[in-house]
Structures are given as structure tokens and as C-alpha cells.
Design brief:
heterodimer; A: 488 residues; alpha/beta; Amidase signature (AS) enzymes; eleven-stranded mixed β-sheet; 39% helix; globular; B: 480 residues; alpha+beta; eight-stranded mixed β-sheet; 15 strands; 18% strand
Chain lengths: 488, 480
């Protein structure tokens, strides 16, 4: 059962090939048996999962089921779940049980989906390897000595290891796409504003966006249908109409113009990964698409721009974690200053502290114009570059990452080389565009991803391109050793 | 040396919205601690602000009330600092692009003269909670009921020159915002809180001195005292050849002194930047014009109209216009009696006297405007004298009924029957031979004084009900 796509599980539940309880039990058993090796989950609540599955089975029997009724889904531990710990990968929130659901969680619950558990992540979503998690690094199911990517590393690992059929993630600079690429799964970061941020613990408010992670584009479309839509409680969520994201999956790629940003194929891209990406592009050409070279001339400014804006926003988003109302509080504070400093010193890990410091500096009097304001100006240029590309192309394509998953510990002492991991993904967030990573082959048995970037709110087209590619290839069907081994 | 005081005021005005500026929690004053704070107000993880449209509307109303430029695209910013009663670690405020730009309005001083005071800007922001230091055994408690209450921070130009002008400014502001209905302006409950920026300079100089900011002064009287005190303090420093330090000071009402809170030289760096959780507030002309068309007549216009239409002096018009309900009451009295001047007198002297004595608001007056108008009519048609009218008013205040009822019941109707009066006048003349003699011997000027004796006697005889004009007339005839 754990090898099936969401699409087939939906069919199986309706054909009564298995019940939601059986399905949920299968995944819970696998998690219990195997997750010690992958550390992809932070919290699993078997009882509530099974209770939700029972309720789903009743709904299915009564014939008033929604598409995702009874489907188990793993959620990144950044989404608040009422009555269930939501740690955000941090000691700061190790004891935090929200009294409310994130809008995304509420939407899945209303569909009758089952919460399998909360997945591991880099602390406060700050990282590209999952190594900054307070709960220890998650492991890559293709090679447990390697990172699964981050920050949504637990979600990617869980799906790739067959510990969940699908998962949710968040992407501030590549946190869905990069782990999807490293773990050989399909991940979509929707347009900024497409999915509500309410109840999703903020890292960088103007960049954060939630999205689906699954085996296939079709599965991502099914999940996005449940997630997308305006939320009156999130002022930055868009009133742009949603659509059935599965409706256009079957469209032909004939006449599609795919832009290849030349900056994404230059120095820095590992040769073997580049070859896989080239092969994927040839495949798309064979499906009727035209390849055109385009340029993103301000690409070289992406990393510095991102690493001013994201930490600046993070530095103030994380101010609320002060030990006063919830979360970690240091023992026996002697005064207010002591309460603040020890609580935050103990509650936050190194990478979070680093970004708070950088962000605080960038916003300081006398530096604001030189850093934050300038970065916002460059951000506009980067967005304009993309808009110019979309005059020549319908979607853009390139590598998701410079290379495949790296070894645990390889970059954890070198923040800058870690930041370079996201060189191809960050700009998409700065421009607020939708982006996907699609499995495109292997380098030394390690998956690599093809990145697709679309116009604002053009998720359906991205999913269509990815789906057509997946009909013609089987990279997304390849199973990790974790998938084939272990329990049933 | 002669010093000139230069004052600018920052007023934090609580807007009278039902719910908070970024959440649906109620804003009622005086609830049990932390019963009016939801997850947004508590700054819980993942919670997001949603702007209350009513707060925007009120800010625009204020802007139109001071003839200001309305910010067509205003932006919320985060003002970052740590404090236990500031749940998110930042206050959502407006920094670079406020909703209300430069404006002005007129204040009226005690002597009836007016001055124009410039408003630099007014911006929307959220209030913080409160730290409570009692009953926590050496620890502090936090009440977040007030957190997220909408505030309009109104910043004046340094146009104010004295404590009296500062108080006049605050009264005019209070009057304006209550006319607009955007705030209850209740200083005791903190709906209007005032920070005073004050500096001195030699009279005649046009450069500004170094200022001190006095925080959170919460009554008209304290504003006056704090300014007087701060003037003395700064003048002493300057006259001793010292320099005023730019700093924030706190006014201690118990000790009547200001003391240093923190020096601006080590001031917080608030790291303002645009709030990414909210979109810019875009306001179009249609929205502004719709609000403008619904504005009530504002105090300054009403004062001018009262002077023109009712022939009132500036001071009287100012007193009557200060409070919108009082002004409405006054106009209703005029409508009922037809004499604006007598109505103004009665409202200001008798009615306000009773209201103040009983600590009542105009809305709670036991005598309605129509009833007071009815009483004044009886003076105008000579049914009763002004003196008797005061008795009748007293009885009306006690709830004994309308003017006519009381006049009738107590038999207070003025005696205007010439036969009856003549008899009384004759009786008095007959019994006052010495005074008559004295009167007849006197010249015109003295006679004017002496006639008072006879009038008094007739009034006494009539128990105050004789028509004084007719008595005078009869006396003049009989004492030739």
C-alpha cells in the first residue's frame, strides 16, 4: 500500500480495496519500524490519527467524502495543530501545544484527511540540510549518510521512505524544492499568497509559502486543490480565483515555450547534474516544447539580497519568543533582562541566532538604507528579470540544486557554502513565483531535480508540464531502499 | 532673561471601534485581565494581523476634520522593541507613510481669542498591554486586554507657546474627536494620553532649544502643572549657564515633578521596516468624499455660526460649542423660546451651574431643552420675572413639572394688572412719607437711586410677583 500514489489511494479507498484505518495503520507501523533510521518525524499521535481514519471511513461509507477523505498526510512541524505539539524544530517550542489549527491544517481536516504526524525540519525553517533541527538531522532515504535537504527535510524523507504518501512543506528560499530534489520526489512551491500563511510559524513573511510534496505532479495537484485559496485571516493571501489543479494535467506540451536562464547553467552547476537536467529538457522538447535561452541578469545578486531580506524579517518575527507567554522559559530568571537573554540563548540554535543577528544589523539605524532598502530595490529588479523572461517563454526550467544530496556534516560548519545550495531556488521566492522540483534522474544513485518556474498563479501549467514529463519518464517511480525494505 | 516656551504635543487617541485594530477581540474598558485578548493579541506563533476598516475610516474622518492631506497609500511598519506587555516584540505602527499628513486646526483661549495650531501628522497604531506590579509577590503580571486597541497618534507642530495654549489645544482636540464620534476622549480611562515636547529659547529667537519629552500626562490639570514645572526646571538650567539634555521625563503627579526616564542618546533603535504581514492601505477619492459628505458640523464652524447667527460673543460661543450635545441643547432652547441671548445666559449660568454642581453630563439633565425654552418664554411674555424664573427652574430641576405647571401651582404669575399694581404702589407711597419727601427734594440723578426703595417695597408687598417695568412706570407717574 505504501508504494501507491495518492491518486491510487483515493481510488483504492473508494473501491474498498482497503480502509483508511488499514492505510493509516500501515503507515503508522512503518513509521514505528523504520523512522529510527530516517528521523523524519518529530511527533506522531497514533490515537488521533486512527480516530481521524475511523471518521474518514464512516464518511466514505456514507458517500459524502471529499477527494482527500481518509488519505494520510504528514505535515511539516511548522503548521500549528490544535492539541498537538508544534515545535518548528526548535527547543524554543518543544513544549508548545497550539490551541488552534493553521488554515492549511483546517482545510485538510475539513477534507477528512488524516494527520499522520509532524515532520522534522530545520529550526524555524532556517537551513538547507535539516541539520539545524533541535530533534537531530533527518536522513536521506537514498543514503542515510546524506542529508535529505531542508528545511522541509522531514517531509521529503518521509515521502521518499514510504512513511507517508504525501506531505506538506514550506518554502522560503527553496525549502520544498531542494529537499524534493535530494529525495527524488515532486514538490511545488505555489505563488506567494496562493496558500494561507495563518498558523504557519513565520520565518520571512514576504517569502514564506506552503506547498505539497509527493511522488508525482498529479499527487501535488490533488493536495494543492485542498490547500489553495484566499483566507480572510491572512491579508497577504490572494483573491485570485483557484482552479481544479488536476484539470489541465493532460494538456499537450505542443507549442510550449520553455525558457532556460543561461545563468542557471554556468559555473557552479555540477557537470553530472547538468547532464541529467539537459536530458530532461530534451525529453520535454521531444514532447513538443520549444527551448529558448533567456537571461536573468541580476542572478548574481540573489543570494546577498535574500540573505538581507529573509533574516531581517526573521529577526523581528522571532521576537515574540521571549519566554513571557508560551514556549521555553529559562529557569529562575532574576530579572527581565535575564529572562530574555537566557530564554533566547537556550531556546534558539546557532543558525537561528546567526540570522537574528544578521537581520537585526540589516535593519539598524544607519544601515537600513544600505542593506534592507537596497535589497528591496534589487528584489524588484530580480522580479523584473523574470517578467522579461516570461515574455519569451511560458515556463522556465533549470536545475533545482547545483548537485545531489551532500554528506551529513559536510557543510554544517560553513554557512556560506550552505547558502549557495539555494542559488537556483531563492530568486523564485524573491519574485513570488510558483516553482517545482521534479525527479530527473540520478547521479551516483542519488536523485537530482529539474526545476520548473511559472508565471504568477500559473501552478496548473507547471503541474501540467511536470505531469507530461512524468508520463514519459519513470524517475519519480524509482523507489528508495527505504521504500523497498522494512515493514509491509 | 525672558524665555519663550516652545511646545509640541503628541496625543495617543484611542479610537472608539468595537473591536481591535488587527483582531476581532472587543475593546471594552475595565474587563477582567486577559479576557479580551485572543491569539492574535497574544502574539501566538503563526497569527496574522487583519486591519479593522473602521479604524481607517476614523483616521480619515480625523484627517478631514483638520483639513489634512489624506495618505492615499499609507504603510504599516514594525517598531521593534522588547517589553513584556508588547506581545510580538514589535508594535505595528506607521512610520514613513502615515494615513494623515499635514493639517491644522483652531484653538480658542480663555479670553475668546483664537490661534491656528499645525498638525504634523497622525498615524494608526496598536496599543500595548499593561504590566501590573501589585499582588504578584515581587513578580509582574501582564494584562493584554488593551493590546491591539486602535490608537491614532496625533503629532502637533511646535506651535504651542504656553501651558494655557496646551490645555486649549487638548480641549479643542477633545471637542473635535467627540464631535466626529471617533473617540470617547476619556482621559481618565486613557483614551487620550499626552506626551509633551518642551524646550525654551530666549524671547525673540527663532531657533529651537533642546527639548525634553514628558511622557503620558493624563489630565488637563497635569498637563498644565507639568509644563509649568518643566519650564522652571529648564529655565533654572539655562540661567545657570547649563545645557538641557534631550531626554524622556516622567511627570509624577503625586510629587508634582518631572524626572528623567531615559536619555535619548542611548535611545532604542526601533528598526522600523514595512510590516510584511499587511498590505499598504490604499484609499481612493471616492472613499474620502463619501466620508467627507457624512461629517458633522465641526466645532470651529459651529462657533463661527453661533457668533453670526445668534449674535454671541466669542467666549460664550466657545463654551456652548465645546460639547456637541450642549450645543445641540442650546439650539433646541433657542428654537423653543426664540431668544438666543437669553437662552445662552440660561444655558451657561443656570443649566451648567446645576450640571456641574451635580456632576451630570448634559445628556442626563432633568430639564429638557424644550422645557427650559418654555420657561424662558414665560420671562419673555412677562408672566414671571427673571428672579422668579430661577425659583421655577429650581423646581423644574427637582422634577416638579413644566414651567407653566409650577407657576400655576405656586401662584407665581407676575402681577401685571394695572389696577392691582396701582393699589400696591399707592399703599407703599402712603406708608413712606419721609422717603417721598426726600425723593421729591432730590435731583434727577438722585431720584434714580431713590426710586429703588419704592420698587423694593412694592416687590416685597407682591411677594416678588409684581411686574417690575410696570411698577417703575407707575411710580414715575405717581411721584411727580
Amino acid at each position: 500500500m505504501h508504494e501507491k500514489s495518492v491518486a491510487r489511494l483515493i481510488a483504492g479507498l473508494r473501491e474498498k480495496s482497503f480502509s483508511s484505518v488499514e492505510l493509516t495503520r500501515c503507515y503508522l507501523d512503518r513509521i514505528e519500524a523504520l523512522d529510527g533510521q530516517y528521523n523524519s518525524y518529530i511527533s506522531v499521535d497514533q490515537n488521533s490519527a486512527l480516530a481521524a481514519a475511523e471518521a474518514a471511513d464512516r464518511q466514505l461509507a456514507a458517500g459524502d467524502a471529499s477527494p482527500l477523505t481518509g488519505i494520510p498526510v504528514a505535515h511539516k512541524d511548522i503548521f500549528c495543530t490544535a492539541g498537538m505539539r508544534t515545535s518548528c524544530g526548535s527547543r524554543m517550542l518543544d513544549n508548545f501545544v497550539p490551541p488552534y489549527d493553521a488554515t492549511l491544517i483546517r482545510r485538510f481536516n475539513e477534507q477528512g484527511a488524516v494527520i499522520l504526524g509532524k515532520t522534522n525540519m530545520d529550526e524555524f525553517a532556517m537551513g538547507s540540510s535539516n541539520e539545524s533541527s533541535y530533534y537531530g538531522a533527518a536522513r536521506n532515504p537514498w543514503d542515510t549518510d546524506r542529508v535529505p535537504g531542508g528545511s522541509s527535510g522531514g517531509s521529503a524523507a518521509a515521502v521518499a521512505a514510504g512513511l507517508a504518501p504525501a506531505a506538506t512543506g514550506t518554502d522560503t528560499g527553496g525549502s520544498i524544492r531542494q529537499p524534493a530534489a535530494f529525495c527524488g520526489i515532486t514538490g511545488l512551491k505555489p505563488t506567494y499568497g496562493r496558500v494561507s500563511r495563518l498558523g504557519m510559524i513565520a520565518f520571512a513573511s514576504s517569502l514564506d509559502q506552503a506547498g505539497p510534496m509527493a511522488h508525482s505532479a498529479e499527487d501535488c495537484a490533488l493536495l494543492l486543490n485542498a490547500m489553495a485559496g484566499q483566507d480572510p485571516l491572512d491579508s497577504t493571501s490572494s483573491d485570485q480565483a483557484t482552479e481544479d489543479y488536476t484539470a489541465r494535467l493532460g494538456d499537450s506540451l505542443e507549442g510550449l515555450r520553455i525558457g532556460l536562464p543561461k545563468e542557471y547553467f554556468g559555473e557552479g552547476l555540477e557537470a553530472a547534474t547538468g547532464e541529467r537536467v539537459d536530458a530532461a529538457l530534451k525529453q520535454l522538447e521531444a514532447l513538443g516544447a520549444t527551448l529558448v535561452e533567456v537571461s536573468l541578469p541580476n542572478s548574481h545578486l540573489t543570494i546577498p539580497t535574500y540573505y538581507v531580506i529573509a533574516p531581517a524579517e526573521a529577526s523581528t518575527n522571532l521576537s515574540r519568543f521571549d519566554g513571557v507567554r508560551y514556549g521555553h522559559r529559562c529557569a529562575d530568571p532574576v530579572d527581565l533582562h535575564d529572562l530574555y537573554t537566557r530564554t533566547r540563548e537556550e531556546g534558539f540554535g546557532d543558525e537561528v541566532k546567526r540570522r537574528i543577528l544578521v537581520g537585526t544589523y540589516a535593519l539598524s539605524a544607519g544601515y537600513y538604507d544600505a542593506y534592507y532598502k537596497k535589497a528591496q530595490q534589487v528584489r524588484r529588479l530580480i522580479k523584473q528579470d523574470f517578467m522579461a523572461c516570461f515574455e519569451q517563454a511560458d515556463v522556465l526550467a533549470g536545475p533545482t540544486t547545483p548537485g545531489p544530496a551532500f554528506a551529513l556534516g559536510a557543510k554544517s560548519d560553513d554557512p556560506v557554502s550552505m547558502y549557495l545550495e539555494d542559488v537556483y531556488t531563492l530568486a523564485v521566492n524573491l519574485a513570488g513565483l510558483p516553482g517545482m522540483s521534479v525527479p530527473a534522474g540520478f547521479v551516483d544513485d542519488k536523485p537530482v531535480g529539474l526545476q520548473l518556474i511559472g508565471r504568477h498563479f500559473d501552478e496548473a501549467r507547471l503541474l501540467n508540464v511536470a505531469h507530461q514529463y512524468q508520463l514519459a519518464t519513470d524517475w519519480h517511480l524509482r523507489q528508495s531502499p527505504a521504500m523497498t525494505g522494512g515493514a509491509s | 532673561m525672558q524665555w519663550e516656551t516652545v511646545i509640541g504635543l503628541e496625543v495617543h487617541l484611542q479610537l472608539a471601534t468595537h473591536s481591535k485594530i488587527f483582531s476581532g477581540s472587543p475593546t471594552t474598558f475595565g474587563a477582567e485581565p486577559n479576557t479580551q485578548a485572543n491569539a492574535v493579541d497574544l502574539g501566538m506563533p503563526g497569527m496574522l494581523p487583519v486591519l479593522n476598516e473602521q479604524a481607517v475610516r476614523y483616521a480619515v474622518m480625523f484627517g478631514l476634520g483638520i483639513e489634512a492631506e489624506i495618505g492615499k497609500r499609507s504603510v504599516f511598519d514594525r517598531k521593534n522593541y522588547f517589553y513584556p506587555d508588547l506581545p510580538k516584540g514589535y508594535q505595528i505602527s506607521q512610520f514613513q507613510y502615515p494615513i494623515v499628513g499635514r493639517g491644522h486646526f483652531e484653538i480658542q483661549l480663555e479670553d475668546g481669542s483664537t490661534r491656528e495650531i499645525g498638525i504634523t501628522r497622525a498615524h494608526l497604531e496598536e496599543d500595548a498591554g499593561k504590566s501590573l506590579h501589585e499582588d504578584f509577590h515581587g513578580q509582574s503580571g501582564i494584562d493584554l486586554n488593551r493590546a491591539g486597541t486602535p490608537l491614532l497618534e496625533i503629532v502637533s507642530e511646535p506651535d504651542i507657546r504656553s501651558a494655557a495654549e496646551a490645555v486649549a489645544y487638548l480641549k479643542a482636540l477633545h471637542s473635535l474627536v467627540t464631535y466626529l464620534g471617533i473617540s470617547d476622549g476619556n482621559m481618565a480611562e486613557g483614551s487620550m494620553r499626552c506626551d509633551i515636547n518642551i524646550s525654551l529659547r530666549p524671547t525673540g529667537s527663532d531657533t529651537l532649544g533642546t527639548r525634553a519629552e514628558i511622557k503620558n500626562v493624563n489630565s488637563f490639570r497635569f498637563v498644565e502643572k507639568a509644563i509649568h514645572h518643566e519650564f522652571e526646571r529648564q529655565a533654572d538650567i539655562l540661567e545657570d549657564g547649563g545645557k538641557v539634555v534631550q531626554e524622556t521625563r516622567l511627570y509624577d503627579a503625586d510629587r508634582d515633578e518631572t524626572r528623567s526616564m531615559r536619555s535619548k542618546e542611548v535611545a532604542n533603535d526601533y528598526r522600523y521596516f514595512p510590516e510584511p504581514d499587511l498590505l499598504p492601505v490604499v484609499i481612493d477619492d471616492g472613499y474620502i468624499e463619501a466620508i467627507r459628505s457624512e461629517l458633522p458640523e465641526l466645532p470651529t464652524d459651529k462657533r463661527r455660526r453661533f457668533m453670526d447667527q445668534y449674535g454671541l460673543g466669542a467666549y460664550d460661543a466657545g463654551v456652548l460649542v465645546d460639547n456637541r450635545e450642549l450645543a445641540d441643547y442650546y439650539e433646541a432652547v433657542v428654537a423653543a423660546c426664540g431668544d438666543a441671548k437669553i437662552a445662552a445666559n440660561w444655558v451657561q449660568v443656570e443649566l451648567l451651574g446645576q450640571l456641574n454642581k451635580n456632576e451630570l453630563e448634559i445628556g442626563a439633565s432633568p430639564v429638557s431643552a424644550e422645557a427650559l425654552g418654555g420657561l424662558i418664554q414665560r420671562i419673555l411674555d412677562n408672566s414671571i420675572s427673571g428672579k422668579i424664573a430661577k425659583q421655577v427652574f429650581e423646581a423644574m430641576w427637582q422634577g416638579e413639572g413644566g414651567a407653566d405647571e409650577i407657576i400655576e401651582a405656586r401662584g407665581l404669575k407676575q402681577v401685571s394688572d394695572s389696577g392691582e399694581l396701582e393699589a400696591m404702589v399707592d399703599e407703599v407711597i402712603a406708608g413712606s412719607a419721609a422717603q417721598v419727601e426726600q425723593y421729591l427734594a432730590a435731583d434727577d440723578a438722585k431720584r434714580k437711586k431713590l426710586v429703588g426703595y419704592f420698587v423694593g417695597q412694592v416687590m416685597k408687598l407682591s411677594k416678588g410677583q409684581a411686574n417690575p417695568q410696570m411698577v417703575n412706570q407707575l411710580l414715575a407717574e405717581k411721584l411727580k
